[in-house]
Amino acid sequence: MSKTRITLNENDIPKQWYNIAADIEGEFxxxxxxxxxxxxxxxxxxxxxxxxxxLQEVSQDRYIEIPNEVLxxxxxxxxxxxxxxxxxxxxxxTPAKIFYKYEGVSPTGxxxxxxAIPQVYYNKKEGVEKITTExxxxxxxxxxxxxxxxxxxxxxxxxxxISYDQKPYRKALIESYGSEIVASPSRQTNSGKIMLEKxxxxxxxxxxxxSEAVEEAVNNKGTKYSLxxxxxxxxxxxxxxxxxxxxxMEIAEEYPDIIIGCVGGGSNFAGxxxxxxxxxxxxxxxxxxxxxxxxxxxxxKGNYEYDFGDTAKLAPSILMYTLGHEFIPPxxxxxxxxxxxxxxxxxxxxxxxxxxxxxxxxxxxxxxxVTFLRAEGIIPAPESSHAIHxxxxxxxxxxxxxxxxxxxxxxxGHGYFDMSAYSSYLNGELVNPNNG
Length: 436
Ligand SMILES: Cc1ncc(COP(=O)(O)O)c(C=O)c1O
Description:
Bound molecules: pyridoxal-5'-phosphate
CATH architecture of the domain at 71-109 and 238-435: 3-Layer(aba) Sandwich
Strand order of the largest sheet: 1-4-5-15-10-11-14
Shape: globular
Structural class: alpha/beta
Number of strands: 15
Strand content: 15-25%
Radius of gyration: 20 Å
Mean pLDDT: 95
CATH topology of the domain at 71-109 and 238-435: Rossmann fold
Largest sheet: 7 strands, mixed
């Protein structure tokens, strides 16, 4: 009989992160300095990040060692399980086999600690006293607050206002870890004040919260900034997911025909997919599907061009799919997917047809989330539910075509802090702003 839950033991945790830059060598354009517009040099990034992370950002090494201090915290929740969604398969009466990597088992409920832990570790090692960051859904802010507590580093989170209001218990969790948290736009930075003057009721956005966190970091010695997605080193740390998944799929004696993940900046998708990309480059037929909200359709409707990573143009300009750094996405419940840009490495793969993207409206997404919940028992984060919606569509298509197919997706987080969104859905109050 096939296994339902495929686990590895703690000694099987990968000891290295996988760096896709080594396999798509020299193809990624360098970020540009926000002031001079010249290609950025490692020292330009020093006010923001510790040197070890900057070197990872530009590294061409295929594998990078995971420090023991990081592994010892990974071991408290990794390897994460790979689960066969056989009850969902039955519910959908599909011939497809569905597997998911469940990242909701981390202490804060998502894949985000996979990079928060090493980021805080390298900052601590280089003597940084305080880390500022942004958060959309609250998952990233929780992960940084948790990691700050692990290493004794102060943290401050600028939380996008709409999510701050929608999720008071994320705020309470972040504070419980000992972190400071403010709603963005705030009056604590120039970027925040300018936005509040323009629109006192601004719901905020990830782009603006990034500006506020960057501004505080560059203006204060001993303070650096940390980003939860998009950058190469963040995607690098997340590859622990895909490396584990490859071993677990081998144990299941399966190989994925399609790999699916939701995309905000691209880190959980990349984490699962990147270790498999080399197989596609070497000729394997794998369909990589990135899923985003219809109201923030970066990969499906954005332009592939240089743009700033944040609203106030303080962060470097990067070559990516973008809706424009001034785009403020509608207040959908998947706060972690409300980002105008995308990871340059992922954008490059989309541009070159190695990864494709689809966008769905949130009512359809919640419908699929509830189908998954009632079959599998886990309440998914609204972000992850975008991937689930794509999985269900694929499984139904497999049934219609009477085709066997192996689907692997990333269940990037649980939705225990998103119950107000589920209440709105169940009460019939959920709408699709701008068809999203
Ligand atoms: C559970 C969850 N999944 C996905 C995302 C999207 O981010 P990324 O595309 O970097 O994985 C977020 C972001 O906050 C999240 O909280």
